[in-house]
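[Q] Does anyone have a clean structure-token version of this?
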Amino acid sequence: MAAPPSSPELPWRTRIQLSIISKFNDASRRRDGTVNRRLLRFFESVIRTPANSNPIKGVWTSDITIDSSRNLWFRLFVPTQFTGRGDSQLPVVVFFHGGGFVYLSPDVKSYDIVCRRFACKFPAVVVSVNYRLAPEHRYPAQYEDGFDVLKFLVGEKSLLPENADLSRCFLAGDSAGANLAHHVAKRACESKFKDIKIIGLMAIQPFFGGEERTEAEIELAGVDLLVSVSRTDWMWNAFMPEGEGMNRDHEVINVSGKNAANISVLDFPATLVVVAGFDSLKDWQRRYYEWLKNNGKEAYLVEYPNMIHAFYVFPELPESGDLISQLRDFIHNQCQKIN
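[A] Here you go.
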């Protein structure tokens, strides 16, 4: 039997993209804990894409503002084959992008492409959320924004397509966005919404952590092309406000640790957790999955042993397409339970 690879086997195209992303992110982080937004705006101006009411690959998009004072908005993705068909109800997927709570937005090209694929392949109405970023806006701003999106969808349902079914709503996110999706799901359970039902959570390589250094964080140092202890420590410091207990063992970071919230009493949605073998965060992600199971929750684990953090945003990787199929099947299975 062949030994597993000691580093991820990726096309040069993917490696070059990862190198560029890492260099710009590192260059934007200042020692005083602030971010060089001017540099990031220059970089992101090249990779942003506008909404388009003319269908691209079977999906039209529009940007909807919730609160301009805090730049809270979302990009709506609607598959055209179902537009105007009231007899074909579609689930709603509320998606939160990654970026360590510091970077990126729904109009970055990679996320526009990903959410377009989601809308077409699932199929579903996708709501991709632009939330406030750290360090300018620290915890709990991001979670407040995420929860307010749910309230907005309930109150302004007429802005969604007629066949968008809020009784079959899923929360999803990657990296920091998956962390955000988890906490929004928890708060939604506590709030007991009547006009929206969260029936599934898709946590793609969630950004969790703790004061401990895990085996993966140590062993993958210098191998993981996007995530490193120095980067994640900086991001957590930028995210958390100062104060007693505001460290990496806080329940919003170390969700399955000693300060974990008690979700056993909540009607927490079925959760799909995605883990990659060359992701430094994989130990925290597996602990999250085990914690869900130990609390009596329906949870599924999907692993990609030879993949990296954020692999699924690179469509040239076969595993990217496979993951979308896994997510589609999860959505279908959960919807079947309530039909």
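[Q] Thanks! Anything notable?
[A] The radius of gyration is 19 Å.
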